Amino acid sequence: MKIREMQDEILRLKKEKGVCILAHTYQSNDILEIADYTGDSFGLSVKAQDVPEERVLMCGVRFMAETVKLLSPQKHVYLANSGAICPLAEQADKELVLALRKKYPDYCFVVYVNSTAETKAVCDVCVTSSSAVKIVKNIENPNIFFLPDCNLGTWVKQQVPEKNIMMMNGGCPTHLRVTADDVKAARAAHPGALVLMHPECRPEVVKEADYIGSTTGIISYAEQSDNREFIIGTENSVLTHLQMSAPEKRFYPLSKDCVCHNMQLTTLADIYNMLQYGAEEIVMPDDLIRDAVRCVNEMLRLGE
Ligand code: CIZ
Protein backbone atom coordinates (compact mmCIF):
# COMPACT_ATOMS: atom_id res chain seq x y z
CA MET A 1 0.00 0.00 0.00
CA LYS A 2 1.27 3.53 -0.78
CA ILE A 3 1.05 6.40 1.77
CA ARG A 4 -1.80 8.04 -0.17
CA GLU A 5 -3.73 4.75 -0.33
CA MET A 6 -3.33 4.17 3.40
CA GLN A 7 -4.48 7.73 4.10
CA ASP A 8 -7.59 7.18 1.91
CA GLU A 9 -8.36 3.94 3.72
CA ILE A 10 -7.99 5.68 7.11
CA LEU A 11 -10.36 8.45 6.00
CA ARG A 12 -12.91 5.83 4.92
CA LEU A 13 -12.55 3.71 8.07
CA LYS A 14 -12.73 6.60 10.55
CA LYS A 15 -16.00 7.72 8.98
CA GLU A 16 -17.41 4.18 8.96
CA LYS A 17 -16.39 3.54 12.59
CA GLY A 18 -17.18 7.00 13.97
CA VAL A 19 -13.68 7.86 15.18
CA CYS A 20 -12.38 11.42 15.54
CA ILE A 21 -8.62 11.67 14.99
CA LEU A 22 -6.63 14.27 16.94
CA ALA A 23 -2.99 14.87 15.99
CA HIS A 24 -0.54 16.90 18.04
CA THR A 25 1.53 19.45 16.12
CA TYR A 26 4.68 17.35 16.68
CA GLN A 27 3.27 14.47 14.57
CA SER A 28 4.48 13.83 11.04
CA ASN A 29 2.81 15.44 8.07
CA ASP A 30 1.21 12.26 6.71
CA ILE A 31 -0.66 12.02 10.04
CA LEU A 32 -1.61 15.70 10.23
CA GLU A 33 -3.15 15.40 6.75
CA ILE A 34 -5.71 12.77 7.83
CA ALA A 35 -6.47 14.24 11.27
CA ASP A 36 -9.80 15.90 12.07
CA TYR A 37 -8.02 18.39 14.33
CA THR A 38 -4.40 19.36 14.88
CA GLY A 39 -2.84 21.59 17.51
CA ASP A 40 -1.33 21.66 21.00
CA SER A 41 -2.37 19.16 23.65
CA PHE A 42 -4.74 21.34 25.63
CA GLY A 43 -6.35 22.86 22.55
CA LEU A 44 -7.06 19.35 21.22
CA SER A 45 -8.60 18.25 24.55
CA VAL A 46 -10.91 21.25 24.51
CA LYS A 47 -11.85 20.57 20.87
CA ALA A 48 -12.64 16.90 21.60
CA GLN A 49 -15.39 17.99 24.03
CA ASP A 50 -17.46 19.31 21.12
CA VAL A 51 -17.00 16.60 18.49
CA PRO A 52 -20.01 14.36 17.77
CA GLU A 53 -17.95 11.15 17.72
CA GLU A 54 -17.99 8.98 20.85
CA ARG A 55 -14.58 7.53 20.01
CA VAL A 56 -11.49 9.73 19.90
CA LEU A 57 -8.00 8.66 18.82
CA MET A 58 -5.08 10.74 20.13
CA CYS A 59 -1.92 10.75 18.04
CA GLY A 60 0.63 12.06 20.48
CA VAL A 61 1.98 10.93 23.84
CA ARG A 62 0.17 9.37 26.82
CA PHE A 63 -0.47 12.49 28.93
CA MET A 64 -2.20 14.08 25.91
CA ALA A 65 -4.66 11.18 25.61
CA GLU A 66 -5.22 11.38 29.38
CA THR A 67 -6.03 15.10 29.13
CA VAL A 68 -8.58 14.35 26.39
CA LYS A 69 -10.18 11.74 28.67
CA LEU A 70 -10.22 14.18 31.64
CA LEU A 71 -12.22 16.73 29.67
CA SER A 72 -14.47 14.13 27.94
CA PRO A 73 -14.86 11.33 30.51
CA GLN A 74 -17.94 9.92 28.75
CA LYS A 75 -16.02 9.32 25.50
CA HIS A 76 -13.84 6.36 24.56
CA VAL A 77 -10.33 7.78 24.18
CA TYR A 78 -7.53 5.77 22.55
CA LEU A 79 -3.78 6.30 22.33
CA ALA A 80 -2.50 5.51 18.83
CA ASN A 81 0.84 4.08 20.06
CA SER A 82 0.98 2.74 23.64
CA GLY A 83 4.74 3.18 23.84
CA ALA A 84 4.57 6.95 23.32
CA ILE A 85 5.25 8.50 26.73
CA CYS A 86 6.49 11.97 27.68
CA PRO A 87 9.78 11.69 29.62
CA LEU A 88 9.11 15.12 31.15
CA ALA A 89 5.71 13.99 32.46
CA GLU A 90 7.32 10.90 34.01
CA GLN A 91 9.72 13.04 36.09
CA ALA A 92 7.14 14.11 38.70
CA ASP A 93 5.04 11.28 40.07
CA LYS A 94 2.34 11.41 42.71
CA GLU A 95 4.66 10.23 45.53
CA LEU A 96 7.22 12.95 44.80
CA VAL A 97 4.55 15.65 44.80
CA LEU A 98 3.02 14.39 48.04
CA ALA A 99 6.46 14.42 49.71
CA LEU A 100 7.11 17.98 48.45
CA ARG A 101 3.70 19.12 49.68
CA LYS A 102 4.55 17.84 53.15
CA LYS A 103 7.82 19.78 53.08
CA TYR A 104 6.27 22.98 51.68
CA PRO A 105 2.72 23.08 53.08
CA ASP A 106 2.27 26.82 52.41
CA TYR A 107 2.96 26.59 48.68
CA CYS A 108 0.51 26.44 45.79
CA PHE A 109 1.53 23.49 43.58
CA VAL A 110 1.45 24.46 39.90
CA VAL A 111 1.85 21.66 37.38
CA TYR A 112 2.60 21.90 33.66
CA VAL A 113 0.00 20.19 31.43
CA ASN A 114 2.85 17.85 30.39
CA SER A 115 2.21 15.66 33.44
CA THR A 116 0.27 12.50 34.23
CA ALA A 117 -3.34 12.62 35.42
CA GLU A 118 -2.14 11.12 38.76
CA THR A 119 0.25 14.04 39.25
CA LYS A 120 -2.37 16.63 38.26
CA ALA A 121 -4.73 15.07 40.81
CA VAL A 122 -2.39 15.99 43.70
CA CYS A 123 -1.54 19.51 42.45
CA ASP A 124 -3.53 22.74 42.80
CA VAL A 125 -3.40 24.35 39.36
CA CYS A 126 -2.44 23.19 35.87
CA VAL A 127 -0.80 25.48 33.28
CA THR A 128 0.10 25.30 29.59
CA SER A 129 3.18 26.98 28.15
CA SER A 130 0.96 29.76 26.77
CA SER A 131 -1.09 30.31 29.94
CA ALA A 132 1.60 29.79 32.62
CA VAL A 133 2.58 33.45 33.13
CA LYS A 134 -1.02 34.69 33.39
CA ILE A 135 -2.11 31.86 35.69
CA VAL A 136 0.84 32.22 38.06
CA LYS A 137 0.22 36.01 38.22
CA ASN A 138 -3.42 35.39 39.13
CA ILE A 139 -2.80 32.82 41.88
CA GLU A 140 -3.65 34.37 45.27
CA ASN A 141 -0.84 32.55 47.14
CA PRO A 142 2.56 34.38 46.87
CA ASN A 143 4.40 31.02 47.26
CA ILE A 144 4.45 28.82 44.16
CA PHE A 145 6.01 25.40 43.65
CA PHE A 146 6.34 24.85 39.88
CA LEU A 147 6.84 21.41 38.35
CA PRO A 148 8.11 19.45 36.53
CA ASP A 149 9.92 21.75 34.01
CA CYS A 150 12.43 24.12 35.65
CA ASN A 151 13.17 25.91 32.36
CA LEU A 152 9.54 26.85 31.83
CA GLY A 153 9.46 27.64 35.57
CA THR A 154 12.47 29.98 35.25
CA TRP A 155 10.89 31.76 32.28
CA VAL A 156 7.69 32.28 34.31
CA LYS A 157 9.69 33.45 37.34
CA GLN A 158 11.44 36.12 35.24
CA GLN A 159 8.06 37.54 34.23
CA VAL A 160 6.35 37.23 37.58
CA PRO A 161 9.09 38.49 39.95
CA GLU A 162 6.56 39.37 42.64
CA LYS A 163 5.97 35.66 43.36
CA ASN A 164 8.25 33.43 45.39
CA ILE A 165 8.68 30.55 42.90
CA MET A 166 10.42 27.31 43.77
CA MET A 167 10.77 24.50 41.26
CA MET A 168 11.99 20.96 40.81
CA ASN A 169 14.93 20.17 38.57
CA GLY A 170 12.97 18.61 35.67
CA GLY A 171 13.16 19.26 31.95
CA CYS A 172 12.18 18.11 28.47
CA PRO A 173 15.08 15.97 27.12
CA THR A 174 14.35 17.19 23.58
CA HIS A 175 14.46 20.95 24.29
CA LEU A 176 17.38 20.46 26.71
CA ARG A 177 19.57 19.38 23.79
CA VAL A 178 19.54 22.88 22.31
CA THR A 179 22.59 24.97 23.32
CA ALA A 180 23.54 28.66 23.16
CA ASP A 181 26.23 27.64 20.62
CA ASP A 182 23.43 26.28 18.40
CA VAL A 183 21.86 29.76 18.40
CA LYS A 184 25.20 31.38 17.52
CA ALA A 185 25.80 28.92 14.67
CA ALA A 186 22.24 29.22 13.30
CA ARG A 187 22.35 33.04 13.41
CA ALA A 188 25.72 33.05 11.62
CA ALA A 189 24.35 30.73 8.91
CA HIS A 190 21.07 32.66 8.50
CA PRO A 191 21.67 36.29 9.54
CA GLY A 192 18.26 37.52 8.31
CA ALA A 193 16.27 34.90 10.22
CA LEU A 194 14.33 35.44 13.43
CA VAL A 195 14.89 32.89 16.21
CA LEU A 196 11.60 31.51 17.59
CA MET A 197 11.93 29.34 20.66
CA HIS A 198 9.97 27.24 23.15
CA PRO A 199 10.35 28.18 26.85
CA GLU A 200 11.24 24.53 27.62
CA CYS A 201 14.74 25.39 26.29
CA ARG A 202 17.44 26.31 28.84
CA PRO A 203 17.40 29.93 30.16
CA GLU A 204 20.78 30.78 28.58
CA VAL A 205 19.36 29.65 25.21
CA VAL A 206 15.94 31.28 25.62
CA LYS A 207 17.54 34.68 26.31
CA GLU A 208 18.98 34.64 22.77
CA ALA A 209 15.53 34.30 21.13
CA ASP A 210 13.59 36.96 19.21
CA TYR A 211 10.30 35.34 20.19
CA ILE A 212 9.51 32.90 23.01
CA GLY A 213 6.25 30.97 22.99
CA SER A 214 4.31 27.71 22.90
CA THR A 215 4.19 25.55 19.78
CA THR A 216 0.95 27.25 18.76
CA GLY A 217 2.53 30.64 19.49
CA ILE A 218 5.62 29.85 17.39
CA ILE A 219 3.50 28.67 14.45
CA SER A 220 1.20 31.72 14.51
CA TYR A 221 4.15 34.11 14.91
CA ALA A 222 5.97 32.64 11.88
CA GLU A 223 2.81 32.59 9.75
CA GLN A 224 1.86 36.19 10.57
CA SER A 225 5.31 37.79 10.59
CA ASP A 226 6.48 39.89 7.63
CA ASN A 227 9.93 38.35 8.02
CA ARG A 228 10.74 35.64 5.46
CA GLU A 229 13.23 33.47 7.36
CA PHE A 230 12.97 31.75 10.73
CA ILE A 231 15.11 29.54 12.93
CA ILE A 232 12.80 27.20 14.83
CA GLY A 233 13.68 26.22 18.40
CA THR A 234 11.22 23.46 19.14
CA GLU A 235 10.58 19.88 17.92
CA ASN A 236 11.79 19.78 14.33
CA SER A 237 8.50 18.46 12.88
CA VAL A 238 7.18 22.03 13.26
CA LEU A 239 9.58 23.11 10.49
CA THR A 240 7.92 20.84 7.95
CA HIS A 241 4.43 21.98 8.95
CA LEU A 242 5.45 25.63 8.66
CA GLN A 243 7.10 25.01 5.29
CA MET A 244 3.78 23.51 4.06
CA SER A 245 1.61 26.33 5.43
CA ALA A 246 3.96 29.14 4.34
CA PRO A 247 5.91 27.83 1.31
CA GLU A 248 7.05 31.35 0.39
CA LYS A 249 9.07 31.55 3.64
CA ARG A 250 12.20 29.65 4.76
CA PHE A 251 12.53 27.67 8.00
CA TYR A 252 15.72 26.30 9.56
CA PRO A 253 16.20 24.05 12.61
CA LEU A 254 17.94 25.55 15.63
CA SER A 255 19.41 22.11 16.31
CA LYS A 256 19.28 18.91 14.30
CA ASP A 257 18.96 17.13 17.67
CA CYS A 258 15.65 18.77 18.61
CA VAL A 259 13.72 15.60 17.80
CA CYS A 260 11.30 13.92 20.23
CA HIS A 261 11.49 10.19 19.63
CA ASN A 262 8.30 9.62 21.61
CA MET A 263 6.30 12.04 19.51
CA GLN A 264 7.74 10.46 16.36
CA LEU A 265 6.81 6.94 17.50
CA THR A 266 3.27 7.07 16.13
CA THR A 267 2.98 6.12 12.46
CA LEU A 268 0.22 6.17 9.89
CA ALA A 269 0.15 2.37 10.25
CA ASP A 270 -0.70 2.71 13.98
CA ILE A 271 -3.78 4.70 13.03
CA TYR A 272 -4.74 2.25 10.32
CA ASN A 273 -4.30 -0.65 12.77
CA MET A 274 -6.35 1.09 15.46
CA LEU A 275 -9.23 1.51 13.01
CA GLN A 276 -8.96 -2.14 11.91
CA TYR A 277 -8.22 -3.91 15.21
CA GLY A 278 -8.46 -1.36 18.06
CA ALA A 279 -5.84 0.24 20.31
CA GLU A 280 -5.24 0.94 24.00
CA GLU A 281 -8.18 2.74 25.57
CA ILE A 282 -7.39 5.25 28.31
CA VAL A 283 -9.23 4.12 31.42
CA MET A 284 -9.10 5.98 34.74
CA PRO A 285 -11.06 5.63 37.97
CA ASP A 286 -13.75 8.27 38.57
CA ASP A 287 -12.03 9.76 41.63
CA LEU A 288 -8.78 10.23 39.69
CA ILE A 289 -10.68 11.99 36.90
CA ARG A 290 -12.50 14.17 39.44
CA ASP A 291 -9.28 15.25 41.23
CA ALA A 292 -7.27 15.85 38.06
CA VAL A 293 -10.12 17.83 36.45
CA ARG A 294 -10.25 20.06 39.54
CA CYS A 295 -6.62 21.03 38.82
CA VAL A 296 -7.43 21.75 35.14
CA ASN A 297 -10.58 23.71 36.04
CA GLU A 298 -8.54 25.89 38.38
CA MET A 299 -6.42 26.90 35.37
CA LEU A 300 -9.59 27.83 33.47
CA ARG A 301 -10.88 29.86 36.44
CA LEU A 302 -7.59 31.74 36.91
CA GLY A 303 -7.20 32.30 33.17
CA GLU A 304 -10.54 34.03 32.74
O1 CIZ B 1 1.31 20.76 25.43
C1 CIZ B 1 1.73 20.82 24.28
O2 CIZ B 1 1.04 20.68 23.32
C2 CIZ B 1 3.20 20.97 24.10
C3 CIZ B 1 3.97 19.74 24.10
C4 CIZ B 1 3.80 22.12 23.94
C5 CIZ B 1 3.14 23.43 23.73
O3 CIZ B 1 3.88 24.43 23.76
O4 CIZ B 1 1.96 23.53 23.48
The structural class is: alpha/beta
What is the helix/strand order?
Answer: HEHEHEHEHEHEHEHEHHEHEHEHEHEH
Morphology: globular
Strand content: 15-25%
Describe this structure in words.
The protein has helices at residues 3-17, 29-32, 41-48, 62-71, 94-103, 117-121, 132-138, 150-159, 173-176, 180-189, 203-206, 215-224, 237-245, 268-277, 286-303; strands at 19-24, 37-39, 55-59, 76-79, 108-112, 125-127, 143-147, 164-167, 194-197, 211-212, 229-233, 250-253, 280-281. It has 304 residues and is an alpha/beta fold. It has three domains: 3-84 and 265-285, 3-Layer(aba) Sandwich (Rossmann fold); 89-172, Rossmann fold, CATH 3.40.50; 178-253, NadA-like (Rossmann fold, 3-Layer(aba) Sandwich), CATH 3.40.50.10800. α8 (150-159) links the parallel β7 and β8. α1 (3-17) packs parallel to α14 and α3 runs parallel beside α4. (~{Z})-2-methylbut-2-enedioic acid is lined by residues 24, 40-41, 113-114, 128-129, 198, 214-216.
Task: Please describe the structure with a list of short key phrases separated by commas or semicolons.
Rossmann fold, 3 domains, five-stranded mixed sheet, binds (~{Z})-2-methylbut-2-enedioic acid
Topology, please?
Blueprint: H1 3-17, E1 19-24, H2 29-32, E2 37-39, H3 41-48, E3 55-59, H4 62-71, E4 76-79, H5 94-103, E5 108-112, H6 117-121, E6 125-127, H7 132-138, E7 143-147, H8 150-159, E8 164-167, H9 173-176, H10 180-189, E9 194-197, H11 203-206, E10 211-212, H12 215-224, E11 229-233, H13 237-245, E12 250-253, H14 268-277, E13 280-281, H15 286-303
Parallel strand pairs: 1-2, 1-3, 3-4, 5-6, 5-7, 7-8, 9-10, 9-11, 11-12
Antiparallel strand pairs: 4-13
Helix pairs in contact: 1-14, 3-4
The chain binds (~{Z})-2-methylbut-2-enedioic acid (CIZ).
